[in-house]
Design goal:
Belongs to the DNA repair enzymes AP/ExoA family. One of its GO terms (molecular function) is double-stranded DNA 3'-5' DNA exonuclease activity. 26% of the residues lie in helices and 25% in strands. The strands form three sheets. It has a six-stranded mixed beta sheet with strand order 3-4-2-1-14-13. The protein contains eight helices and 14 strands. Helix 5 links the parallel strand 7 (106-112) and strand 8 (148-153). The protein binds one DNA strand of 18 nucleotides through loops.
Length: 261
DNA sequence: ATGGCAGAACACTTCTGA
């Protein structure tokens, strides 16, 4: 089974790139982030025509996540509330950043972790709180589903191999100690990054700034990840970043990442 | 230290992204 994740930076703007990529790569499941569209305006038809079942949770202008799957998913849920309760989820479900479902006996969770703006800002504080809720959510999800795959745009650089210039960006959002600690605590629930099962060297990225010719210079960040519970991690056959769509005209600033189990 | 680019919307300017 191939499970892809891709921050598309507007599904309506990227529709040709995404449908073409699906035809070439035919993943069983693709998790999308930053769809930037309300559910009533999501372009379902091109994906249905390609044989995908579509599960979407969007909002106007910002955020928005979706899971497309060749086989139907069951137990679709959105946000934290279904596992954590309305009271704990609170305002954190207002932004559409999480959608989950079950395929076979595998729990698939698609996330768009908040960006955080700047270290120390209000949005940064929101990001850290959101990650703590995600940790609580995953603890429950792993108890229910020993086979679990969470993937998406984590907006965190796991370690210094995962960014072109760690020293110059040491104070940037995405690299701070509290963010990395939050990610470590999530991983310690019993998850592993399959990309690092197969590739140990640096220089592999999933996001490049649109500005300053970052992509041709490979000035990138690896911030789009999969995390697999142990039974799936053991089975993972490969995990790759496909930079081909990043070379197209008017690309997303992120490239898709694919794990094969 | 700043700007550079791209997308969306109560749109020609502002917010957000990382």
């Amino acid at each position: 089974m191939k499970i892809a994740t891709w921050n598309v930076n507007s599904i309506r703007t990227r529709i040709e790139h995404v449908t073409s990529w699906l035809q070439t790569n035919s993943p069983d499941v693709i998790c999308l982030q930053e769809t930037k569209v309300t559910d009533k305006d999501f372009p379902l038809e091109p994906f249905i025509n390609l044989g995908y079942n579509c599960y979407i949770s969007g909002q106007k202008s910002y955020n928005g996540v979706a899971i497309l799957s060749r086989s139907p998913l069951t137990q679709i849920t959105t946000g934290f509330a279904p596992l954590l309760g309305e009271e704990t989820a609170g305002i954190f479900d207002e932004q559409k950043r999480l959608i989950a479902g079950i395929i076979d006996d595998i729990c698939i969770i698609c996330v768009y972790v908040p960006n955080g703006s700047e270290v120390g800002s209000e949005k940064y504080d929101y990001k850290l709180k959101w990650l703590k809720l995600l940790q609580e959510y995953l603890k429950i999800a792993l108890d229910k589903s020993p086979k679990l795959c969470i993937c998406g745009d984590f907006n965190i650089v796991p370690d210094d191999r995962d960014i072109h210039n760690p020293k110059a960006n040491a104070n940037s959002v995405g690299l701070s100690v509290p963010e990395r600690l939050a990610l470590t605590e999530i991983i310690e629930l019993g998850l592993n990054d399959p990309f690092r099962k197969f590739t140990s060297e640096g220089g592999h990225y999933s996001w490049w700034d649109y500005r300053a010719a970052a992509f041709p210079r490979n000035n990138g960040w690896r911030i789009d990840h999969h995390y697999l519970s142990f039974p799936l991690y053991e089975q993972a056959k490969n995990c790759t970043i496909d930079i081909a769509p990043r070379k197209l005209i008017k690309p997303s600033d992120h490239a898709p990442v694919i794990v094969e189990i």
